[in-house]
Amino acid sequence: MKSLSTRAAEPKHWLSRLWSLLRGEASATRVGLSVGLGLFIGCQPLYGLHLPLCLLVCLPFGLDALLAYAAANISNPLVAPFLLLCEVEVGSLLLNGHALAFDVGAARRADLAGIAREVALGSVVVGALLGLAGGLLGAFAARFRRRAEETPLDRARKRTVARYASAPPGDRYYVSAKLRTDPSLAQIAALGPLGDVLDAGCGRGQLSLCLWELGHVGKLMGFDFDARKVELARRAAAERAEYDVFDLRSAPLGSVDSLLLVDVLHYLAIAEQDELLRRAARSLRPGGRLIVREVDGASSRKSLLARTLERIATRVGYNRSASALGFRPLADIQRTLESAGLRCELALSEAGSLLENRLLVAYSPS
After folding, report:
1. Whose CA, among 106, 134, 189, 334, lies 20 to 30 Å from 124?
2. Left (φ > 0), alpha (ψ -120 to 50) or beta: where does 186 sit?
């Protein structure tokens, strides 16, 4: 049975997640897109549908639906008549080659179907122009504000992305997007100094390198099954870290203060996962931490979406796995770690995320 405090916190948590979903990701590019799309929608003579349209175009792409709707209110009662007149004139210029003269006689002779075509075309053109101008202005303002409020983690992200300047474009874009949008980076950074770190299943190495740039890592080591990604990590590290090619099932784990298993455990069968978790627990120094981020295999729509996307990525060869993917509830992983003598803390679901990814931190006894 849920405690009173838990039940009291549920509405607040639900509202917080809803707010995060509506606001989307707060990058300058997304702010500009939100403003631009909002202005474009607001210019369309679809009164009463502006809010649903803003939600429809913003939520699937992590844009700011509230900011877009605020911009869409350019068609408020004070501005809408002038905006509509401008759209009619632009549409007439494009369709007829001349502006539309408005007087009583012209109004009586008006071809309603023709005016509707002029409004339809004019609203698209005026909306596109206002959206482009407003979007650029919004992105500039957001970038200026972001620079003024830049955090140490923001600066560490930029330095990390710069390390991949010579990587192929697809890898550069992936690293940049992953560091900007993946909540696990901020969650792990919030744990503070990590000591000597082993990044197991490091991929391109961007997560652990960013933690190193942040000053949270002493000695940095990592490995991955994919030799191409390991080579990218080595080049980006420039001798600041040791990245090697190993299989998760047999890789030497050594003795470390922190071990990262971020989005990699599901590449193993369940029995292999348990063996790796037990070995990882033994590799931790006193007071060390095992940091696991995984899709929660418990039944939910967000979990199903995450598992489906991961299977597609593996099927097309974007990610590599030596065995069938093994998804499981995080509660099972927690029980395995606790049976190995570790104390576990499970973070809340990532607010606003479309996927059911969770962070689990397991502590070794001091």
Report:
1. 106
2. alpha
